[in-house]
Amino acid sequence: MQLATVEYRLPEPPPPASNADWIARRNAVGLREMVVIAEQWQLTQEQLSRLLGTASRTLLRWRKQADDSGQLDLSGDTVERMSYLLGISKALQILLPTPANRLLWLRNPNSGPPFNGQVPLDRLLNGQVADLFVVRQVLDAARG
């Protein structure tokens, strides 16, 4: 008696999402995280807009689009800004575990370089990507 050979086939996997779709979903998640950080840092809509390098009305439009579709197309500049801000937030969480201390660090004059008496949040709000980079570097160096 010979057994019949049965051929088993795995179901076809779903087609992978395009890279552009993945990036748009990542951008929407990043923007939602920016809103959470803005609340934690007690920022106004205008301040968050400045950090992201855009106008307040554009930020409102982005938030609606991210909430409605779960996807968001952003420029490389905005994504770079979000990356620096996410890193700054994470570094502050590591270095200063309490929200009150993180807020104090952000909102009080800092005598160390590169601030030289300037408030770190004011440095961030200068509107330049380079300022975000510098603050991130300071915090990363403090982390070791």
Task: Summarize the entry for a quick read.
This protein is mainly alpha-helical and 144 residues long. The chain has seven helices and no strands.
Main pleated sheet: none
Gyration radius, to the nearest Å? Answer: 22 Å
- The global form is globular
- Strand segment tally: 0
Spans of at least 5 consecutive residues whose pLDDT stays below 50 are: none
Helix content: 55-70%
Q: Return the average pLDDT rounded to an integer.
A: 91
Q: Can you write the helix and strand succession as a string?
A: HHHHHHH
Strand content: under 5%
- Helix/strand-derived category reads mainly alpha
Sum up the structure in keywords.
144 residues, mainly alpha
How is the topology of this model organized?
Layout: H1 19-40, H2 45-52, H3 56-69, H4 76-95, H5 99-107, H6 120-124, H7 129-143
Helix pairs in contact: 1-3, 1-4, 4-7
Account of the protein in words:
The chain is built from seven helices and no strands. It has 144 residues and is mostly helical. Helix 1 packs across helix 3 and helix 1 crosses helix 4 (76-95). It is globular and about 70 Å long. The N and C termini lie far apart (72 Å).
